Amino acid sequence: MATSLLRSEFLSFTLHPPNSNLRPPNSAPRHLYSRSQTVPQIRCAKRTGKQRYPSEKKKLKLKHKQALGDVENKFEGLWRLSKLGVSVHSDPGKDFLGVSDGLLQEIAKALEFPVASMLPPEAFSVVRKSFDARKVLKEPKFVYTVDVDVSKLLSLEPRTWDFISRLEPKVGLVEHMPHVRASGDLISIIHDSKKISNGALSTKNISPGSKGSYKYPTSRKPKVAVVGSGPSGLFASLALAELGADVTLIERGQAVEQRGRDIGALVVRCILELESNFCFGEGGAGTWSDGKLVTRIGRNSDSVLAVMNTLVHFGAPRNILVNGKPHLGTDKLIPLLRNFRLHLQRLGVTIKFGTRVDDLLVEDARVVGVKVSDSKDKSQQDFQKLEYDAVILAVGHSARDIYQMLLSHNMNLVPKDFAVGLRIEHPQELINSIQYSGLASEVHNGRGKVPVADYKVVKYVSEDGDALVNLGARSRSCYSFCMCPGGQVVLTSTNPSELCINGMSFSRRSSRWANAALVVNVSTKDFDALNFHGPLAGVEFQREFERRAATMGGGNFVVPVQTVTDFLENKLSAASVPPSSYRLGVKVANLHELFPAHITDALKHSISMFDKELPGFISEAALLHGVETRTSSPVQIPRDNDTYESTSLKGLYPVGEGAGYAGGIVSAAVDGMYSGFAVAKNLDLFPHDIESVLGKAQGGGLVKY
């Protein structure tokens, strides 16, 4: 993919910069150094913007010109206009995704067209809309990216011809797109790929009445088991089923309808179903979360667009394709997942809910099936052995028993860095006021003109927990994670003796609270310090603090809490603390007793630094909850970069969050989709290279989310 190529080129340039011919004044000429000596490197601070030297600006301008190239025909395809800012007062609001009069004014400025009212709105389509309320701006504004359909514009308003003829590409602002790129959902993409293959390959490989699907080169369809019905498992199942495999989707938890009832029993009556809860069940852990669809793997990449369009196909609102920070919310995810399930069943996918995978069936270092039992049967005595041609392991990172089972087969598991910390909760009105100032009154509990305010902060502190002064020193990052505006704190424990939490929100984000995890990254060095070693050291590290939190809360999933001000002063909060959205009860505790001192100090310093960025963040109304440990997988299961197959066992394909290759709904779905393609290719299900339609996958590397 182009995004991946640009990223790799940038990293290559950053890590291995070309030699410079410039020498600082009074420096020794090159010939004074012998070949055995190393020429000293002079590192300077990066100069950006107006600080650049004129020569640097000239080079940058030339580089941009070369990158843009000449436009052969300005009247073909589309022109994309970016960073069009419309003030809040001139915009209908966050829920309006059409072309308003205020946006037409900005389009007219970009085209240098004199009369905005003469421009036909039908010729323009909104690609992206986001809200920018940064304090550096004169006023908050909605920021748009708009596509201009040139042929439609000229047919509706011929007087724009001269203005289009004078239009020139500008980096980050104006881009010419000669070929209109049609982005469809995964289903239509696979169907289109079949048509391409039908035209390119001999029909002798096509079975009669198959409508273009290919025969598996044996007397039967290949049988594939997909373990886990989170985003990775669902999209892997969809890809394989559409390509003609006989797919069985195995999920230890329940379908969303029953899962909702089980979660209700947990919240109301404190009854934890070990296999059907906030972590386990149809849709994975993301179902009862915020439903965020933000990703760092490229919003405009073909693979991400395919996932987003597929979600829309199954019932997600179309605004997720346009919103700068798209999210669904639990109430939107539940009917979407039901539609997804029904489509899979129509394709012939067998779905086994309440079925736990207890072991792999292995012959000659190859997985040939799975051993399963009823999730409620703890004895595992009433089991079945099911044979498959391939097994896709798409479990979440809370399925710790799966990691243990993999180790019993001498599989290679690699400890991975992740982050731990606390979840902070503020009144949403306070966050609105901090972020929007006078505009806070426009939020109206998610029903106003501007979106419910959120935040994202990141700082670096030294490994000892002190504020970082020297950027070259060894450091650890402290950042906000899974910020849920208008949300609530929920329990994500899968064991009664352990306590961990997360945040969730519904689509409207109308709760009176805002919460986010404040976490510190940890590594094997931290695991070793607590005498946790081996492949599952990170898992034991998580469990240690989950058990401590459970003890501090006093049991029954009561969460230990402390006000932010008292946490910074290391004193026990008064018996009366600000109200919490967590519904199973809270108990005042000193959260300094939870983590090692260096993690606690890192959290303290980062909170102080966050307050400088968000004045008012440190507030007596802010409440810290313990503990947040499951930010990402603590292990990675090595796999082949191209085939997605495990490097330890043939026939096993580890994918998604639990395998350490994704984080979040979108990146997990993308990983599952490409794994489905890889398995189909390995099983000769589909000879056409479908990846050419979506671009090359990220492969076995860690997907950025």
Automatic annotation (TrEMBL):
One Pfam family here: FAD_binding_3
Region feature Disordered, mapped onto this chain: 16-36
Domain FAD-binding, chain residue ranges per copy: 223-261
Domain called FAD-dependent protein C-terminal: residue spans: 417-631
PANTHER family attached to this UniProt entry: FAD/NAD(P)-BINDING OXIDOREDUCTASE, FAD_NAD(P)-BINDING OXIDOREDUCTASE FAMILY PROTEIN
Name of this protein: FAD/NAD(P)-binding oxidoreductase family protein
Species, as recorded: Xanthoceras sorbifolium
